[in-house]
From TrEMBL:
<dbReference type="InterPro" id="IPR036968">
    <property type="entry name" value="Enolpyruvate_Tfrase_sf"/>
</dbReference>
<keyword id="KW-0133">Cell shape</keyword>
<dbReference type="GO" id="GO:0051301">
    <property type="term" value="P:cell division"/>
</dbReference>
<keyword id="KW-0132">Cell division</keyword>
<dbReference type="Pfam" id="PF00275">
    <property type="entry name" value="EPSP_synthase"/>
</dbReference>
<comment type="pathway">
    <text>Cell wall biogenesis; peptidoglycan biosynthesis.</text>
</comment>
<protein>
    <recommendedName>
        <fullName>UDP-N-acetylglucosamine 1-carboxyvinyltransferase</fullName>
        <ecNumber>2.5.1.7</ecNumber>
    </recommendedName>
</protein>
<dbReference type="GO" id="GO:0008760">
    <property type="term" value="F:UDP-N-acetylglucosamine 1-carboxyvinyltransferase activity"/>
</dbReference>
<keyword id="KW-0573">Peptidoglycan synthesis</keyword>
<dbReference type="InterPro" id="IPR013792">
    <property type="entry name" value="RNA3'P_cycl/enolpyr_Trfase_a/b"/>
</dbReference>
<keyword id="KW-0961">Cell wall biogenesis/degradation</keyword>
<keyword id="KW-0808">Transferase</keyword>
<keyword id="KW-0963">Cytoplasm</keyword>
<comment type="similarity">
    <text>Belongs to the EPSP synthase family. MurA subfamily.</text>
</comment>
<dbReference type="InterPro" id="IPR001986">
    <property type="entry name" value="Enolpyruvate_Tfrase_dom"/>
</dbReference>
<dbReference type="GO" id="GO:0071555">
    <property type="term" value="P:cell wall organization"/>
</dbReference>
<dbReference type="InterPro" id="IPR050068">
    <property type="entry name" value="MurA_subfamily"/>
</dbReference>
Length: 430
């Protein structure tokens, strides 16, 4: 068990250079399997899942050089043997995005039936199976494994997703390059990290129409080349540090090259009385004297924060706004329309003295502005829940502990160091 010891109370101030988005880096790494040309990736974060994928590439026989200090990763898959075998990393959801590249190279891939990731609830594999079958793969189960085999009869496909799933969309796009013709996906996910994967593929020579929209077309059968790509800042991390300023009464500026993604995020901060300003490549939040929930013009309705697929507020950001809801005077309803297991951690907030009410698996009400006290709390295996608990602890004078805080390392390599640079008193302990 790894815990974070937090001595809360200080107002956090300063400037932060955020890391790249885990949810952009991992699919891009998976996409590199579609090319034998040399690839250079820059601003690569040293996080757990990147290490797992790099190790996997090494097992395949790829030539990989990772300069962690420079955050540069050089990849050459031309050295992979046709007879190579390797075990897919099972401790991360991104493993499933290796399938298109492995089918392309070996004609077969195997995956543990229960693909792990954050404990957010049921995360079915059926949409991915439908994608692989649409492109001509045979999918079967053997014991605890799912076996994917290429039939050699794949052709262009058109799919209309029931749900705008990020990883399903990414798997469709990657699979489309393995067959000839133009494939199209309707109700595609359009999150910034999906757009970033498409931008990387375009550098490799891909032809993609509709990037950033719900209808994406991909021209398949195109030989993909090399690329030199620099990852942009993670909008999750940017929003998180801005929220830290709000919850601790501080003043934090964060490097942000894409403020155009922040209109709804900014509006959500305003619901708690906090204002974000964007200028000269930086986003800044100077906390008001008191966070206060904005009252609706329709006075009999409670203020809501609704999380759903982009361009809604991302479900991954909902925990940090729940932390604001706990601190802000007033009542807020949080609605997670994505995961039925994304709000069960609210009981940990009560250990700080927070008042919350879980209406059902998808809706939570916070009754904020009440006095809070230090506590020892336990994080579920959800990245931004661990951060949200850390945020609340940082806003309370006294010593708190966040047990099982390791999920933070899956997405943010220098999060605690950045935290300390802002004036926080926090450290890892076993």
């Amino acid at each position: 068990m790894t815990a974070l010891l937090v001595r809360g109370g200080p107002k956090l101030t300063g400037r932060i250079e955020p890391s790249a988005n885990k949810n952009a880096v991992l699919p891009v790494l998976c996409a590199t399997l579609l090319s034998d040309a040399p690839i250079v990736l820059r601003n690569v974060p040293e996080i757990t899942d990147v290490t797992r994928i790099v190790d996997f590439f090494g097992q395949l026989g790829s030539r990989v050089k990772w300069n962690k200090k420079a955050k540069q990763l050089d990849i050459d898959h031309s050295t992979i043997s046709k007879s190579a075998t390797a075990t897919l990393p099972q401790a991360m959801r991104a493993s499933i995005m290796m399938i298109p590249g492995l089918l392309h190279r070996f004609g077969e891939a195997r995956l543990e039936h229960e693909v792990k990731g954050c404990t957010l609830g049921a995360r079915e594999i059926d949409p991915h199976v439908a994608v692989f079958r649409a492109f001509g793969a045979d999918v079967s189960q053997t014991g605890h494994e799912i076996v994917f085999r290429s039939t050699g009869k794949g052709e262009a496909a058109r799919m209309w997703l029931e749900y705008a799933s990020v990883t399903t969309t990414e798997n469709f796009i990657l699979s489309a390059f393995t067959v000839k013709g133009t494939s199209q996906i309707v109700n595609a996910a359009c999150e910034p990290h999906v757009q970033e994967m498409c931008s990387f593929l375009e550098l490799m020579g891909a032809k993609i129409l509709g990037k950033g929209t719900s209808m994406v077309s991909v021209e398949g059968g195109v030989e993909l080349g090399g690329a030199d790509y620099t990852f942009t800042e993670d909008f999750h991390e940017i929003a998180t540090f801005l929220a830290l300023a709000a919850v601790t009464g501080g003043d934090i500026a964060v490097r942000n090259g894409h403020p155009e993604h922040f209109a709804l995020i900014d509006r959500t901060f305003e619901k708690f009385g906090a204002e974000v300003r964007h200028a000269d490549g930086w986003s800044r939040l100077e906390a008001p004297p008191q966070l206060k929930v904005e009252e609706n013009f329709t006075s009999h309705l409670i203020t809501k924060v609704e999380a759903a697929p982009w361009p809604y507020i991302p479900a991954d950001l909902l925990p940090i706004f729940i932390a604001l809801g706990v601190k802000a005077e007033g009542q807020t309803m949080f609605w997670n329309k994505v995961y039925e297991g994304g709000l069960t951690w609210h009981t940990e907030l009560s250990l700080f003295g927070a008042h919350t009410l879980l209406c059902d698996p998808h809706r939570l009400i916070t009754f904020g502005g009440n006095p809070l006290a230090p506590a020892t709390v336990t994080s579920p295996y959800i990245i931004r829940v661990a951060i949200a608990l850390l945020m609340v602890a940082s806003s309370i004078e006294g010593e708190s502990r966040i047990l099982d805080a390791d999920p933070i390392r899956r997405a943010h390599p220098n999060f605690v160091d950045n935290f300390v640079s802002l004036g926080a008193d926090v450290k890892w302990e076993k």
